[in-house]
Amino acid sequence: MTTQTIPPVRDLRFGELPVDARIAGALKAMGYTSPTPIQEEAIPSLRSGRDVIGLARTGSGKTAGFGIPIIEAIRTNERRVQALIQTPTRELASQVATMLNALGRQSGVRVVAVYGGVGMQAQINALRGNAHVVVGTPGRVFDHLTRGTLDLRQTRFVVLDEADRMLDVGFAPAIDKILGHVTGPRQTALFSATFPGEVESLAARHTKDPVRIAVDAPGAALETLEERFVRVVAGNDKTDTLHDILIHDECNLALVFRRTTHKADKLALDLERRGFKVATLHGRRSQAQREKALGALRAGHLKVLVATDIAARGLDITGLTHVVNFDLPDTAENYTHRIGRTARMGANGIAITLVAPEDEAELRDIQRKLPPAPGRETPAAEPRRGAIQRAVGRQSRNDDRPGQRQPRRNDGQAPRDRTRFSEQGNGWRRDARPSGPRAGSDHGSAASTGAPYYPFRSRSAGARG
DNA sequence: AAAAAAT
Question: How does DSSP assign A102-166, residue by residue?
Fold first, then answer.
């Protein structure tokens, strides 16, 4: 008779949160020891059975915030797809599936990624096996539904990751069709770092009396991120400025955004000629090329990845020190998501936006829509002589970054922001009057307007009664 | 106007 090793009964808590022992084990193996604020809020809410709209900054742990309660609710003895997570890009679907797989490993939960650009048969086989959780992009998910190779009739959890993107015009019809196949009772969760007013009505269509978790104002700044703006004077080449950024000591790994696939390719070619290890990621490349590029970036084999907004949302790349907006993002939301590829989970990061004279007006539009924060440049700021050299050459504020990899904060605790927010107009405004003494900032004018204050972490039902 | 997402 074999002696079974019974694991000691400990680690049944994730910080203050009680968690399933197998999940506690998985979390420990993943290096997480206590929940981030969004996890502290989202996990109990999802456990309670309520729908959730969760807003929290980029890199603050949203994936585990829905992943943990879903994994622990999966009945592994039932061979049914019990949870569906939808993402806007294939790479994000893959990344989320990897994370959920790690969370569910010790629980016997089977997670299957379902997205286009790769063979159908392997996915069909995986789905025919014991798939408990499906993470996918809408096109391929719908394809499986019409072929009858995916059955969502027993699905009890639906998550729209990057929810504002999934509900916008490009995706909404596909999401509607897919959710039409989820015929049983279900819990719906929407998560994002941005949530523009326009998507509120769409969100209401897909959720019932949701718990609204606003750990951070949509678009809120990150304390560990330094946002810089480099004015490139007329006639000057942005590529030269980018070159200067890349060769600077503090730049380990950079993600550079361009607005079109063609421009991304062109810049990558230029950088290659200049001797940089570079790859491109955009939607006109084959899935094999895309995966190779992202894999090389994650493995640290590249200096720089040039991408379109395909890489703007969700991707978590360890060691990414710099995000460069070579071309301006098209919206304030995209600005927030792009720069949020760095400075994740308490790590430091630098985001540099290259600004040509013709970009100025558009940049001002973007900045006007962002919650102001100490350290975040405001539209009023005037470009000054010598600003380029200073911005490129300046050392990072908290320079504790070692050569290769950024340290993950191993206490699992993203820095907590005590700033309060006031709701004004259609958006959220950062109100710089903290609970303590006033920080040396000039962004606090809203504090004296008598606007109502809402608690920093608000938990109110969507519709006020 | 562009990018993404099914083929």
Answer: HHHGGGT--EEEE-TTS-HHHHHHHHHTT--EEEE-HHHHHHHHHHTS---TT--EEEEETHHHH
Token output for A403 = 């050569």
Q: Determine if strand B comes within 7 Å of the CB of A123.
A: no
Paired tokens of A359: 């970009």
pLDDT band at residue A415, thresholds of 50, 70 and 90? very low
- What is the Cα–Cα distance from A68 to A26, expressed in whole angstroms? 10
In chain A the domains, ranked by start, together with CATH numbers, are 13-214 (3.40.50.300), 225-393 (3.40.50.300), 420-461 (no CATH)
Which of these ranges, A119-133, A353-367, A408-422, has the smallest mean pLDDT? A408-422
Distance B2 C1' – A124 CA (angstroms)? 33
Nucleotides of B under 7 A from a protein CB: 1-7
| Residue A147 backbone phi and psi in degrees, to 5 | -80, -10
Q: In what side-by-side order are the strands of the sheet with A225-231?
A: A225-231, A349-355, A322-325, A254-257, A304-307, A278-281
Mean pLDDT value of segment A294-311:
96
**Encoded tokens for A152:** 């969502």
Contact A177, A203 (CB under 8 A): no
* Amino acid sitting at position A406: Q
Task: Decide: A290 and A118 in contact? Cβ < 8 Å.
Answer: no
As a rounded value in angstroms, the CA-to-C1' distance for A439 and B1 is 41
Confirm if A115 and A163 have CB atoms less than 8 A apart.
Answer: no
A23 contacts A68 by C-beta, under 8 angstroms? yes
Nucleotide nearest to A117 (CA to C1'): B6
